[in-house]
Amino acid sequence: MRRRELVAMTLGSWASAVGLRSDDADVPEIVDVRLDATELTNGDTELSLTVRAESKSPVNWLTRRLVGPNGTILGGGYEIPYDEVDDGVWEYTESRTISKWAPDGEYRYENVSVRNEAQEESVEWPDDVGTTIETGYEADEPVLEDVSLRADSLEAEDTELELTLEAESNAPVNWLTRRLIGPERTILGGGYEVPFDHDGGDRWTYAESRTVSKWAPNGSYAYETVSVRNEGHRESDEWPDPIETTIETEYVAEKPVIEDVTIESTTDANGDTRLDLTVRATSNAPVNWLTRRLVGPNGTILGGGYEIPYDEVDDGIWEYTESRTISRHAPTGEYRYESISVRNEGHLESDDWPSEPSVVVGEDDHCFIATAACGTPDHQHVGTLRRFRDETLRGNRPGEAFIRAYYAVSPPIAAWIGKTRIRRSLVRRLIVSPAAKLASAITSPESTADD
Q1: Helix (H, G, I), strand (E, B), or coil: what is residue 391?
Q2: How many domains does the chain divide into?
Q3: In 3D, which of 99, 100, 2 has the Cα closest to residue 396?
Q4: Domain assignment present for 301
Q5: How does pLDDT run across 256-312, given as a tens digit for each residue?
Q6: What is the pTM for the complete model shown?
């Protein structure tokens, strides 16, 4: 094991052993979960899940799974601000309507947990909360009667694809699943909830439109695995054949190249920090996709990619800025972006940006105790310890644990040290100077720190 890793692990173990993590006291705790069911005038049932939690910092995330008689209806989590109903007590109510056509039986919420702005997560609520719904309506399995695809040329030389579905169902149809395949890759897939139009009787229709850029590759575009679902949670068989069309244009896109990536941080009057990630790329076709991962002191905060139009700031140069706010309650330390790539309207993807831009959030750049003892953040010892922090402790969990512990306890200690000259002198000679020499030996074995 390398010496730097051993030092980081040793300091991290010390931090954990003495319980000096700055965020340990701010793990949210769920104190109550309840489920209310209200019958509506049209025969549907509204489920209201209310979650109450205690937390020093605002609670802003809910994870849960809703299970019905036929299986899971929804799951996962999402960011949402809770109401502070009392000092340090946060509450949120999620509502969902269960159609009168849904199957009779038990509906229950499982795996309920919350997260706060300190990026700490509660333990799951130990009990499921459920209710029984009985309406007497029974939905039949929907049947796809027709699926068609129309391709229209637009004035901008793009092509609009319109997928039209006709289904028969005694219950309203409210879900579409499909996959769109282009000449070189899957363009989109999965399903989503959407109300179909009622054309009378048991007939339901819906049209989905998507624009294919003139820069997209020439060839076949096909919809596959098309199916629908109704409010009775019944799903149709897949449409048996792909529905396709051919698109031909004279435009040929080239692979985009990322030219620059920067990150800037701005702290507002409330102490929250806004991160602005700016990506600039060259491409003969418009750039319209960003993939990235944001990693904080406690792990991944967000990841994946999304479609977004970039601004053309110069001929063939495209730029986009993504902003995200880091709460003042979030853990202090390094926040970095990884695996950054872009894609253009030709469905071509750049290489990943080779470096990982980062900023330090919530920490002064100097060391509190060393600065108090030396009298200035510009002292050589302070610079040596700062380099030790950045080069040895950062980037690994034990080292980050020690940094969080240090920044949790050092401000009041530094204030006490700075009150008298004798304290400053003693701490500088007995603690700071030896620590700087050791740090220098670890980060730069060929040199040592001078007194």
Answers
A1: helix
A2: 4
A3: 2
A4: yes
A5: 999 999 999 998 888 889 999 999 999 999 999 999 999 998 889 999 999 999 999
A6: 0.75
